[in-house]
Structure formats: structure tokens, C-alpha cells
Design brief:
about 475 residues; alpha/beta; eight-stranded parallel beta barrel; two-stranded antiparallel ribbon; 20 helices; about 45% helix
């Protein structure tokens, strides 16, 4: 039925994560945040994903302070984040007490909507974060990691979203991280989810294959409520579709977004200038990549393969590695390729090729995957390969986090001397080495910079730890 389509802007999170190696600094975000706040977006994705790690590791910034500053600069717009279920914003499972505390602090520092996903689509890995988000009064967006395989069908995904609804989801997100959903497939999937759940549906697609805009249009016709888009200055390639184009395409129709493009044009010009600062990290390719449809490999994975093969003087073997990825994925029960499963599958495929024998060596992450430490794969793993990797080791069948003891108290003992806020403790738990260095430097006064805050008092210097 005709309905107004809403836009979620991803410029401050996924767009620069996809195109600029997550290097955009807080000061550049704040330079355009107030203008973004006036556009009338349904929400803005500003936090989570790789931004948390990158803030400390590469930018010497406090991710919590970034969130607080964005919230202050954008009082009108709902802010949302991407959360990796029981992995939070890290790369392994954390105990339930950490999940509870992280969600509490995320909402308390300004997040309105938490998009919660799991790399394996194992609902057990989403449950605790969904409960915590609901308890804190934020919007729970249950997310499916979209992929194509012999075991992933429209019916399969629809049933999964019904499970998420029953677990408390307020809306559903279709997360197409590789850009592989076909336009008519998007139509059928959205229609099935709407019929099955009755919940609002948000589309998140990457433009890698060149199909995302077409998929969005068909999804809208099927009833999709919200589209994730990026400002034209940071759209397309492995980022999201261009918001100006999508808004213009729906203008004057029964799906009109109601957004005035005149408010976005000046922002785009400023962002074009900002983007030039990050030329050293700009990996955008103006061409579409049809290989993603065959290998289902997100753009970042291919970049990593190229880098590692160059270091091994083995660039001539790239095609072998790309061909090995689907085989490893099949061995592992067809996991969707998204953090951390993409790294697990990709690293093992690379190792198989360079070693000249499949699973002659297995990464620790591959071993843990076959042990069940990441959750239940979408379909049974290859028994022969599992035996080769972990032998007769017993596989975990329970929710992996059930085996983890509480972490907060022990971490407090380890790092207590450097902690100034409860948020500091969470940084340490998820990224011990990186956070410890960051916190030590902050205590030594090496991480304090000046900001001329938008909306601050004229002539006043505003300080914040970053």
C-alpha cells in the first residue's frame, strides 16, 4: 500500500567505514552534524560497527565522547547504532553482564535505536542484547544478515524474523552487507516479512554489485518503510545508495519522503571537501563489482586479500583465494559473510591456498567456529573438515555465552587504576591492549584536544578527551 518512505542516513558510520577505512574524525562529523539534524531524516546511524575500535586504535579518540558530542549537536534526530549481538562492537562473545552494561551506557549516552544482528543469524546470540535494549527503553531493531545459499530462502528468513518479533523486536532490518540481494528477491522478502511479522521493515544494502537502488525501489513497492542511504559525497561503491537520488526518485509519488533536497546539497559540498582529507584511506572503486554475486565477498574482504597476498608475493593466486571462499563457506554450513564470520572464512580460505592443502593449518578462529563457540551455523558443517580441524573435540550445543563467567568485576581489578568512567571499563574489556594504551595516554595528558563546538559559547575553548 502507498506509504511515506523514511530515510536513515549512514554517512557518519557505515559510509565512511566502507569507503574511508573508518577514519573520519569526530571534528569532521561535528562540522556537518547540525545541518544533518535539520534535514528530517528518520534516523542517523552514527555509532557501532567498526567505529568504536577505530576511534581508539587509529584516531586516538574516545568513542563514547564521540557519541555524546553527536547527541549534543543533533538533538532533533534519532540516533542509531549497529550492535553485533553478544559480540557487541568487538569480535568475540562477551558475558551477559558486559552486554547489559554496554547497552545501558549506549542508550544513556544518546542512542535511540539499536540494530542487533548476529553473523550466523543465531537468535540465541541476539536475545540478551534485545532484552537489555528493551529494558533501557530504546527501540529494538532485530536484524537478519542476508545471504544466498542452498539453505537460505525467503521462507527461512521470514521465519527468522517472526522469531525476532516474538523476542521483542520493534522493527526488522534486512542487512545486505555484500550487496547481493536481487531486486525481485527484495520484493518477495519484504512482502513475506511484512505478512509474517506486521513490523516496520528497514533495508540496508551496499551498492557493491550495482543492484542496491533497484532493490530499494522494489522493496518500497513491497512495503519497506525505511531505506538506509548515504550522502552523495560518501555513497555508492561499497557504501549505501545515494540518498539524494532515492529521495528524488520517490518525490511526487505515494512514497514521497517529504525531504527537501535543497537542505542536503550544501552538506554534500562540505562532505566532498572533508573526504579529500582522507585520500590516503579512500578505497572507493567507481566500478561495480560483479564478482560479489559469485563469491558473496564484501569489498573489504577483497582489499584484505590483496594486501595479504602482496605481503606474501602471491598476488597471482588471488583468483584461487576467491574461488576457495565459497568452498570454505560450504564446509562451515553457509554462514553469511559479515563480521566476524567473513574474517574467519576469508582467513581460512587464504591459508588453504597458501599452504597448498585445505585445512593443513587452521586458524584459532576456525577451530573455535567448528567447536560451536560462535553459535549454531545455518546448516550442519562438513563432518570430514570438522574432524580435520578439531578432531574429536566436543561441539558446544548451548548458547555460547552461557559458558562465560561475569567479566566486569575481574576487569575492574585489572585496569581500575586507569578508569575514570564506567564506559572506560567497557572499552578495556572489548579491546584490552588498545584501550589500555589509550587510557594510559589519556591519564598522561596526551589525548586532550581542543574543539570549537558548534553551538558553544563564542570564543570559548571546549575541551574533550578523544
Amino acid at each position: 500500500m502507498p506509504h511515506q518512505v523514511k530515510i536513515c542516513d549512514t554517512t557518519f558510520r557505515d559510509a565512511h567505514q566502507s569507503l574511508l577505512a573508518t577514519r573520519m574524525k569526530t571534528e569532521d562529523i561535528l562540522a556537518v552534524a547540525p545541518a544533518m539534524d535539520e534535514v528530517g531524516f528518520y534516523s542517523m546511524e552514527v555509532w557501532g560497527g567498526a567505529t568504536f575500535d577505530s576511534c581508539m586504535r587509529f584516531l586516538n579518540e574516545d568513542p563514547w565522547e564521540r557519541l555524546r558530542l553527536i547527541r549534543k549537536a543533533m538533538p532533533k534526530t534519532k540516533l542509531q547504532m549497529l550492535l553485533r549481538g553478544q559480540n557487541l562492537v568487538g569480535y568475540r562473545h562477551y558475558a551477559d553482564d558486559v552486554v547489559d552494561e554496554f547497552v545501558k551506557r549506549a542508550v544513556g549516552n544518546g542512542i535511540d535505536i539499536i540494530r542487533i544482528f548476529d553473523a550466523l543469524n543465531d537468535p540465541r546470540n541476539l536475545e540478551r542484547a534485545m532484552i537489555a535494549t528493551k529494558r533501557e527503553g530504546a527501540h529494538v531493531q532485530g536484524c537478519i544478515s542476508y545471504t544466498n545459499s542452498p539453505v537460505h530462502s525467503i521462507a527461512h528468513f521470514a521465519e527468522l524474523t517472526a522469531t525476532l518479533r516474538d523476542m521483542g523486536a520493534d522493527s526488522i532490518c534486512i542487512k545486505d552487507m555484500a550487496g547481493i540481494i536481487y531486486p525481485y528477491g527484495a520484493y518477495e522478502l519484504v512482502r513475506a516479512i511484512k505478512e509474517k511479522t506486521g513490523l516496520p521493515v528497514q533495508m540496508h544494502c551496499h551498492y557493491t554489485s550495482g543492484m542496491a537502488s533497484m532493490a530499494y525501489m522494489k522493496a518500497v513497492e513491497a512495503g519497506a518503510d525505511i531505506l538506509d542511504c548515504a550522502n552523495s559525497a560518501l555513497a555508492l561503491s561499497s557504501s549505501q545508495p545515494c540518498e539524494e537520488t532515492m529521495i528524488a526518485s520517490l518525490t511526487g509519488t505515494s512514497f514521497d519522503t517529504g525531504i527537501d533536497l535543497a537542505k542536503i546539497s550544501p552538506i554534500a559540498e562540505e562532505l566532498k571537501t572533508i573526504r579529500k582529507k582522507y585520500a590516503a584511506f579512500d578505497n572507493a572503486d567507481p566500478r561495480v563489482d560483479p564478482n560479489v554475486l559469485q563469491y558473496q565477498i564484501p569489498g573489504g574482504m577483497i582489499s584484505n586479500f590483496i594486501s595479504q597476498l602482496e605481503q606474501s608475493n602471491a598476488m597471482h593466486r588471488l583468483n584461487e583465494v576467491l574461488a576457495e571462499v565459497p568452498r570454505v563457506r560450504k564446509d562451515m554450513g553457509y554462514p553469511p559473510l559479515v563480521t566476524p564470520s567473513s574474517q574467519i572464512v576469508g582467513s581460512q580460505a587464504l591459508l588453504n591456498v597458501l599452504q597448498g592443502e585445505r585445512y593443513k593449518m587452521a586458524t584459532k578462529e576456525t577451530q573455535n567456529y567448528f567447536k560451536g563457540e560462535y553459535g549454531a551455523p545455518p546448516s550442519p558443517v562438513d563432518i570430514e573438515m570438522k574432524q580435520k580441524v578439531i578432531g574429536s573435540t566436543e561441539t558446544i550445543t548451548c548458547r555460547p555465552a552461557d559458558l562465560l563467567p561475569p567479566m566486569l568485576a575481574e576487569a575492574q581489578k585489572e585496569i581500575g587504576a586507569w578508569i575514570e568512567t564506567p564506559e572506560d571499563l567497557l572499552m578495556y574489556i572489548m579491546f584490552p591492549q588498545v584501550a589500555k594504551t589509550f587510557l594510559e595516554n589519556r591519564m598522561a595528558g596526551k589525548t586532550r584536544v581542543e574543539y570549537n563546538m558548534v553551538g558553544g559559547e563564542p570564543g570559548k575553548v571546549n575541551y574533550c578527551p578523544i
